[in-house]
Amino acid sequence: MVTAAYPEIQKYLEANDFKNILSWCTENELRLQQDKFVKYYNVFLINYLIANDITNARFLWNRIPSEIKGADPHLKTIWALAKYISQLNYAHIYKHLAINFGPELAPFINELKVSFQRRVFDLISNSYSNISIKDASLYLGISPEEVVRFTQTNGWEKDPSSDSVKPVPVKPVEQVGNGTKKIHSLTDYIKHVRIEEF
Amino acid sequence: MDAFVNDSSKTELPIKNLKTLLLKHEDNLENNTQHLDQVLAALDPRTQSMAYLIVLKVKCGDQRKNVQNFINQVSHFLSSFNGEQIRVIPQYFSQVSKHYVEQLYNTRVPSRGVLPLKRAVCVFPEKTNTLTPQHADFLQLCILSKCYHQALPIISESTTNLNPEQTNINVKDVLSYFYYAGIIFTALKKYKQALEAFRQAWTAPATALSAIAIEAYKKYYLVYLMVNGTIPGFPKYTPTVVQRTIKNHCKSYVEYGQTFTGGNVQEIHNKASAHAENFQKDKNLGLVKLSIRSIHRRNIKKLTQTFMTLSLKDIAEHVKLSPADAETTILKMIEDGEIFATINQKDGMVSFNENPETYSGNKILNELDTQIHNIVTLESKLTSINEQFATSPAFLKKILTNEKRSVSQYDNGMEDMIA
Amino acid sequence: MNIDSDDMMVEQGTATKATISSNVFDLDAYINQYTGYTKIQRLLFIADVSKEFEKVATDLAQKEIKKTPNVELYGNLCTKNNLVTYDTQWVESTIKKNASQIEKLEQDLNTAKSNMVKDAIRVCVESFTYLIYLLAHNELGDFYYHSGDFANALKCYIRTRDYCTASKQVLTMCFNIIRVGVDMSNYIHVINYITKAEQTPDLSPQSTAKLRAAMGLSSLENAKYSQAAKKFIEAPFDISGNLSDMISPQDIAIYGGLCALASFDRSELKRKVIDNSVFRNYLELVPEIRELINDFYNSKYSSCLNYLDKLKVNSNLKRYPTLQLDIHLHDHIDKLYQKIRSKSLVQYFSPFSSVDLNAMAAAFNTTVGALEKEISKLIMEDSISARIDSHNKRLYARKTDQRSVTFEKSLQVGKDFQNAANDSLLRMNMLNHNIITQGPRKDNEKGHHGGMGGLGGLDPFQMQMEMNKQQAHHFAFVFVVIHIKSSLSLDCVHVYNEINGSWITTIH
């Protein structure tokens, strides 16, 4: 049995619940003693990137004391990755994502790559009606042949005349509401307005 | 010393009596500063908060104290104090917390104070939405330690109550709170809320101009330019002294604003560099740069009003960017939801679509629900305040005197006619 | 003296001096419609503005000036323009003549004044002396006017005001002042005295014509095109030459027609211009303007714009010059044309839901690119509600969805209300507890206010009013929302308009 590298968040990790990992980190950054939290800075930073919160990632980087920045080699690389994400320098992003950060950070980096690709894919689907395969391959970080294969499984057509594909917009998922609660609130409002009239 | 510790355990006494009892020991404590640490060790901040606070306040005056110890003690206190006991001696609390912030700043560990003060801010006031001097201290620490996200839940709540007797708040605390809140919102890129906060700072009632108001106005001006592209006006409740004089203190900003509305990018750059020194002194140079970057976005947005489709080349020409840059900017704007468009790389065309929001469906229903709920609560608050005023003796007296005056005028008139 | 216009060079293209291909323009015939100072003024203007006519106009101007005792103007003309040889002899003799004339007139004036004082007792003689005095002033004023000393002329004319007994005299005075004012380009005086003159009873149509034309002219100079158009159109028809010292009937037609076209909407245009029998007489004098207006009304835009261009630059018309040579229109012609063009674009598009830009460009004598630029400007000014499809080169009309707009606005009202209410509560609390930024005080007065925990500094009436307003706003919001939830889009609009209008006042 391999001992968990990050015991406190192990349960979240197993459930792939990255949102809770992020809130745990936010709460405990100041609460725990400095030396106990040091190893979590990597995790914290990567999780900000997974949530696409570049602003707070930047502030976190500014907060981290310089000794820690110097001591941990991975931290600097993760920050470089963050900078490329904020500039949308796709080529460098995917190059960095391919670096081996060690087995502890691997699940996080993996999740980052997957969520990033998904986000870019959604963006392209909703913004382009026709995109060249070269650009699509750059944005998604996969080879052109894979682009064709991947997109066609998602319903995109390949345009034969030029070297491009036609994205299909992605519809957001709708949540159904609670009917009885609505009726309660409506009656409350009417009661309120009626009382005012008197 | 022991008498003091004993007295502080008499928690069954009513608060006022406890206060007078404990304050009697204050002089004694001041003369025996070397024993203060011992006293603190014997006290429990949870149940004997008042006593603990009095000792801490005395410690503030002690120049020879061990600062680290002091910081630890205050943090411990803030994490566990009982609000009820503290509300009777608010001025002590303010003093301690301000000194605490100062020491944290001097020893360069502002982050240690963030969580304790956060708790203090939530526990100290009796009613929710009350502003305390500790709010300003807390925000100051957040900014110094760059923990902006910690402040966000506090400043997103609207704070409308003020209770100077209970909290010992003064005008500087209020203005500082809004000024810091504005800075934090700006850092987190929540510009609309930043504008609200800054505006509270410089439209606060005043008969004289304060430095905080001027600084707040400068930042407000720049953020307003960035968000709206036009020069801000004064709302009608701005105090007259502010309306008349505040622009004299921000001459470089006003000039920059006038060039900005002209729209000529080259001129704007020149103006910005000309005043760069002033902006740098006020630490607003970053905001100036952001405002220049916002020009491109705004120009593209204007294009969506006029055109349905436009080639990337034409767009690039209109906003004076390269076609590749224009494409990336448009992509970013689509992602942020600022515009609705589709790019066609084959034809090199961009089609601008209308807002697809149809205002039907569950999402909008939920939003309307929450809004109405907020407004109904707000309205009941207003009604209760209205009633309070309408039945207050001062108001009734004023109405009566007004009536009497108008009646007596009428009487005088009649007399003149008869005579 | 007839200028043989045929041997004038024809030049195309624009320059800072307008070069016009107008080998058929008859300057003489044009300028003979005018008399008095305006004739000279116009000649000088033409000389300034146009290269071809510079020599001819200057010559004519010189001759005209010599007919008047205006030595200063002559001097100015010669120094500016070395085409004219300085006639020293004439200058000297005129100066002598002027001096003696002034002496004589002032003597007359003094005698009249002293007579008045002597015979003040004899009432019947008084009115006679008044008359003499009046005439003296008028003569002096006329003299100053002809010598070009407008300031003194104005002074004299204004002085006669105290001695005017009959309305006819008042009228003469007003006309004199108007004349001077127009020539001085001081339109404030002009407008004042026009109003005065209009108040005198029994105005003859000729007088009315003159007054209206003068009023129109001043409005034109002030760039109030709509007013100018109205005044020109109301001028009764008069080709007797009564107006010639200021304006010609053709001018009335041109100025009135162009201003009307630039500023009236369709129904006004039809009612006041096309169907107007009086103004039609003027339009007959300048058939091009009549055709132009009719074309615009019948949506024949390209023909209309052609006429406009011809009038401006390429006049084949003998009796009047291209409009750039006209002294009053010169500054306004571009603006007027721009307005007319924009109006035609808007009118062209109004019946369509989508239109092909190529066809539209052809109709307006322009390229698709230039047309796109023009239309984008109009869209940004909110004159046209449409959007351009640059890819397919079409223009699509844009319909606003009232329902969405209402939703958006009500959500915004809700947010604004919350913000405003919270702000006011905070400010009220601050005032209540006297937490105000105060300047340094000499005496410590602020102590006692804080004790009054109730209604500190703020007038309770004001607060009551503020409260009411907040409630009203809130009401509006709740009402709208509940309405929206249970009704169709038509109702939403109806309710929403109520919010901006009467509904809130009923709450009060």
UniProtKB/TrEMBL annotation, chain A:
One of its GO terms (cellular component) is COP9 signalosome. GO terms for biological process: COP9 signalosome assembly; protein deneddylation. Its main location: cytoplasm. It holds the Pfam family CSN8_PSD8_EIF3K. Keywords: Cytoplasm, Nucleus, Signalosome. InterPro entries: COP9_CSN8, CSN8_PSD8_EIF3K, PCI_dom. It is found in: Cytoplasm; Nucleus. Residues 1-184 form the PCI domain. It comes from the Eukaryota. Belongs to the CSN8 family. This is COP9 signalosome complex subunit 8. The lineage of its organism: Eukaryota, Amoebozoa, Evosea, Eumycetozoa, Dictyostelia.
UniProtKB/TrEMBL annotation, chain B:
The gene is CSN3. Its main location: cytoplasm. InterPro entries: COP9_N, CSN3, PCI_dom, WH_DNA-bd_sf. Belongs to the CSN3 family. It comes from the Eukaryota. This is COP9 signalosome complex subunit 3. GO terms for cellular component: COP9 signalosome; cytoplasm; proteasome complex. Residues 190-357 form the PCI domain. Pfam families: COP9_hel_rpt, PCI. SMART domains: PINT. GO terms for biological process: ubiquitin-dependent protein catabolic process. Keywords: Cytoplasm, Nucleus, Proteasome, Signalosome. It is found in: Cytoplasm; Nucleus. It comes from Cavenderia fasciculata.
UniProtKB/TrEMBL annotation, chain C:
Keywords: Coiled coil, Cytoplasm, Nucleus, Signalosome. It comes from the Eukaryota. Residues 95-122 form a coiled coil. The keyword Cytoplasm applies. It comes from Cavenderia fasciculata (Slime mold). Belongs to the CSN1 family. This is COP9 signalosome complex subunit 1. PROSITE patterns: PCI. Residues 224-402 form the PCI domain. GO terms for cellular component: COP9 signalosome; cytoplasm. The keyword Calcium does not apply. The gene is CSN1.
